[in-house]
């Protein structure tokens, strides 16, 4: 029979709470403002999820972290915590693992229900939003949740967190050991990333990931980075796509890193994308295409880019690619830097520093320098003055010849 705490006189209640488990006191206090007030009258002034860990140094398992954090956020104004950001790191490997990093750090796993009896530990039924969720707590405090459909379970738990915390960011890492039955969950997460309340800041695909090319295509065409225009949002892939693979559209992220099979990154992609940093390995881009790219950048049609690293099919011909562009020198660089780089004047105060590699690598860094010194104009002026001197000399010679001819006549 439950103990009627709210009906017990304060003197008796003080004796009871002094002998109660701190975690149980916090749970009761978080569920009832009246109980929280009574506990404070009994001398219990540190009854919050934040205090129980940092002031009372009580060790909690992952399930207790999850429950108490939601309860703590729920009693804040509007039932949403706005003071504490959460960072969710989702890893797809032989299992689906979610690490929650915020005021405290804990991890939970999402598994198939048919694997329930394969895990050693304490089994219990966890009630969340009127759903009974089978849970196994291992001896080292790890938490495994079990679902008929892992994809639905993952999204359910993630939504529980983003509903209670205002500032939540997600990172996703697809490991080489990803199991085939996790691919459905991966697609569901990609769909989840398009929700307006979801902020995805990083998506990584490891080397040797075994997935159908259709799943990779689905990721590229549907993953969303809501905040990529205002903060760093990175997409990185080491996936080995076949030679015939093509992608439609561009990925809405600030940083793109393709470490393998980058042949699908075309000139059209580079001209359409809004990335700030680009790394592409094993591309099929040529010097002529890089020349077009640079001409478009000088014209101010690629205003967002800050850094580019592209592995080409041929050696980078810096003189040919930049032959028609205006050269300059940055205000804080010595003349000796010209031996390693070429500086190109862009739109406004933008300056591109191009590395003089004699290999198949195009590297560009973009800076702002309103005091950059244009050096190409000096050459033109010098050449022009030489031509004028030559013309004047020719005219003088013609005049002398004319005078000599008149005297002879």
Automatic annotation (TrEMBL):
- Compositionally biased intervals (Acidic residues): 387-398
Q: Which residues fall in a compositionally biased region of kind Basic and acidic residues?
A: 399-409
The domain of life is Eukaryota
Read off the PROSITE patterns from this record.
Answer: FBOX (PS50181)
**Per the database record, which ranges form the F-box domain?**
2-56
Which InterPro entries does the entry link to? F-box_dom (IPR001810), F-box_Sdz-33 (IPR012885)
Q: Map out region (Disordered) in residue numbers.
A: 381-409
What is any Pfam family matched here?
A: FBA_2
Name of protein: F-box domain-containing protein
Please give the organism.
Answer: Caenorhabditis brenneri
Name the lineage. Answer: Eukaryota, Metazoa, Ecdysozoa, Nematoda, Chromadorea
């Amino acid at each position: 029979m439950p103990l009627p705490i709210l009906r017990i006189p304060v003197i008796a209640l003080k004796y009871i709470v002094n002998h109660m488990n701190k975690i149980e006191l916090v749970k009761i206090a978080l569920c009832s403002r009246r109980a929280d007030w009574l506990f404070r009258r009994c001398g219990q002034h540190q009854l919050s999820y934040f205090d129980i860990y940092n002031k009372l140094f009580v060790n909690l398992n992952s399930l207790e972290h999850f429950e108490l954090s939601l309860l703590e956020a729920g009693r804040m104004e509007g039932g949403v915590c706005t003071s504490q950001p959460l960072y969710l790191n989702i890893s797809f490997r032989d299992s689906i693992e979610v690490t929650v990093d915020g005021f405290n750090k804990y991890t939970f796993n999402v598994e198939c229900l048919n694997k329930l009896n394969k895990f050693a530990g304490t089994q219990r039924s966890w009630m969340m939003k009127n759903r009974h969720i089978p849970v196994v707590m291992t001896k080292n405090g790890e938490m495994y949740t079990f679902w008929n459909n892992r994809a639905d379970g993952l999204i359910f738990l993630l939504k529980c967190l983003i509903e209670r915390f205002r500032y939540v960011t997600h990172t996703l890492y697809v490991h080489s050991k990803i199991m085939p039955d996790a691919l459905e969950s991966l697609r569901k997460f990609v769909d989840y990333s398009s929700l307006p309340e979801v902020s995805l800041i990083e998506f990584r695909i490891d080397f040797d990931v075994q997935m159908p090319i259709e799943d990779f295509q689905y990721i590229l065409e549907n993953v969303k980075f809501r905040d990529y225009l205002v903060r760093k949002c990175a997409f990185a892939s080491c996936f080995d796509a076949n030679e015939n693979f093509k992608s439609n559209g561009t990925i809405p992220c600030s940083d793109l890193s393709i470490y393998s099979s980058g042949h699908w990154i075309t000139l059209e992609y580079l001209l359409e994308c809004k990335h700030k940093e680009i790394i592409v390995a094993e591309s099929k881009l040529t010097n002529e295409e890089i020349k077009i790219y640079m001409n478009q950048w000088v014209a101010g049609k690629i205003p967002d880019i800050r850094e580019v690293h592209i592995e080409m099919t041929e050696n980078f011909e810096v003189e040919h690619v930049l032959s028609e562009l205006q050269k300059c020198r940055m205000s804080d660089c010595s003349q000796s830097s010209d031996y390693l780089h070429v500086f190109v004047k862009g739109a406004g105060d933008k300056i591109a520093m191009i590395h003089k590699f004699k290999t198949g690598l195009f590297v560009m860094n973009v800076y702002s320098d309103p005091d950059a010194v244009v050096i190409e104009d000096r050459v033109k002026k010098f050449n022009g003055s030489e031509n004028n001197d030559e013309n004047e000399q020719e005219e003088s010679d013609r005049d002398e010849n004319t005078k000599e001819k008149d005297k002879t006549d």
